[in-house]
Write a structure and sequence with these properties.
With 396 residues, the protein is of the alpha+beta class. It has helices at residues 2-9, 62-70, 82-106, 152-171, 193-198, 203-206, 210-227, 233-238, 278-289, 292-314, 323-353, 360-395, and strands at residues 14-15, 20-23, 32-38, 41-42, 53-59, 117-121, 132-136, 141-143, 244-246, 255-258, 264-267, 274-276. 50% of the residues lie in helices and 12% in strands. The strands form four sheets. A five-stranded antiparallel β-sheet has the order 2-3-5-7-6, sandwiched between helices. The chain has a three-stranded antiparallel β-sheet with strand order 8-10-11, covered by helices on one side. A two-stranded antiparallel sheet has the order 1-4. Helix 4 (152-171) packs antiparallel against helix 9.
Length: 396
């Protein structure tokens, strides 16, 4: 790490005896080790402006395996043998290279709402260790929390940031091979429809009502359509929209906000980047952030914020998008976004229930809000699945 870091900064200074490392990803970064490094530079030139703290990210399945092991059987997305975990490690090495390529791509533009990359080391073919990403540490920031109800104004800021990033990949096509992937990617080698729907079984451990059991049955029926195929693809293709780079995992832990003002600071964690539509990211973060009734009421306005920001940052360049197309696309992709949100959210909720840091009363309060968001999103998945299938039948 030190050799790569000093070379990236082009400095002769070294890290002093007071350097230290703190794990800031425990319970947050489920597919990596995230370390906050206090540098303590020694021998820096007077005119050098070297970072005092940086974040080092190392891909690893160990945190995610720890999370899965903490869940009861039947609620685990990955509940397999060592060979399955080895396959996941292989996929993490691939997605790490995707994240490095993403930082390299967006680093070409000014005023990008993601942290600065100091250096990114790829995994070479056959290499099992050594991949690293070193990025700037954004002072006085924190992650958003799933157990909070966030303001619509913050979501508008995020929508504008997504729109700006969409514009960048319309202005200049991402050419790195790692960024040419479509959403159907290597994760399907270690995941399948049975495992995907199995995650929803955790729903009835958090809510034992007959309503939740019925919802689980409906989710089991539709999840294969969104895990193994995409029956809305013909409709989306007819819209002739150029795909853009999307984060692919824009949950609350991947959004940094200012501790004092609550304003957006940066979007982080780009290892799930793929070609798709910005609405994927917008749906996911809205589901994590807003109560269902607020999400329903304000989502059209969030789409407009994203669209306006994209157009403004295109500076008159041609594009295939209209606001009307985005509103239709929003309905088409909502079930898939809601199902992926739901599978992750159940794991987050179950893990939070085991956290000894909070009282039972505080846990119950947080659980209630997270469950409201979860149930609302999964009910939307059922509702819009039926709407989509009617659209497909009409197209046929």
């Amino acid at each position: 790490y030190v050799t790569h870091f000093r070379a990236a900064l082009r400095t002769e200074a070294r890290l002093g005896s007071n350097k230290c490392v703190v794990d800031v990803g425990e319970g947050i970064g489920y597919s990596s080790r995230c370390c906050l490094i206090f540098c303590d530079w020694v021998g820096a030139a007077d005119d050098e402006e070297l970072p005092h703290r940086v974040v080092l990210k190392i891909p690893s399945s160990l945190p995610f395996r720890k999370l899965m092991d903490s869940l009861p059987p039947g609620q685990r997305l990955f509940d397999g043998n060592d060979a399955m975990w080895e396959m996941m490690e292989l996929n993490l090495r691939k997605t790490h290279n995707v994240e490095v390529a993403t930082y390299d791509f967006f680093g070409q533009f000014d005023h990008v709402p993601i942290p600065k990359l100091y250096y990114g080391k790829h995994f070479e073919e056959g290499e099992k260790i050594g991949g690293q990403i070193c990025i700037e540490y954004r002072e006085n920031s924190r992650v958003m929390n799933f157990h909070e109800n966030h303001s619509v104004e913050l979501l508008k800021q995020i929508a504008r940031a997504i729109g700006k990033l969409n514009a960048f990949s319309l202005l200049k096509e991402p050419m790195a091979p790692e960024l040419q992937k479509k959403p159907k990617n290597d994760s399907e080698e270690t995941n399948n429809a049975k495992g995907f729907s199995g995650m929803f079984k955790g729903l009835v451990t958090r809510d034992k009502s007959d309503k939740a059991k019925h919802l689980l049955d409906l989710l089991d029926a539709i999840s294969p359509d969104y895990m193994e195929s995409n029956f809305t693809e013909p409709l989306i293709e007819k819209m002739q929209l150029r795909q853009v780079l999307v984060n692919g995992d824009l949950n609350n832990n991947n959004v940094l906000v200012d501790k004092d003002t609550g304003d957006l600071v940066a979007l982080i964690d780009w290892q799930c980047t793929h070609l798709g539509f910005g609405l994927e990211d917008l749906h996911r973060i809205a589901m994590y952030s807003l109560r269902t009734e607020d999400r329903h009421a304000y989502f059209p306005a969030l789409i407009k914020e994203m669209y306006t920001s994209m157009v403004d940052n295109l500076d008159g360049a041609d594009h295939s998008y209209t606001l009307e197309k985005l509103l239709l696309l929003s309905d088409l992709i909502l079930p898939q976004c809601a199902l992926h949100f739901g599978a992750s959210a159940i794991a987050f909720i179950s893990n939070h229930a085991r956290d000894p840091s909070f009282s039972d009363d505080e846990k119950a309060k947080r659980n209630d809000l997270m469950m409201v968001k979860l149930i609302g999103a999964l009910e939307d998945a059922i509702k819009f699945d039926a709407k989509n299938k009617m659209l497909v039948r009409n197209l046929n």
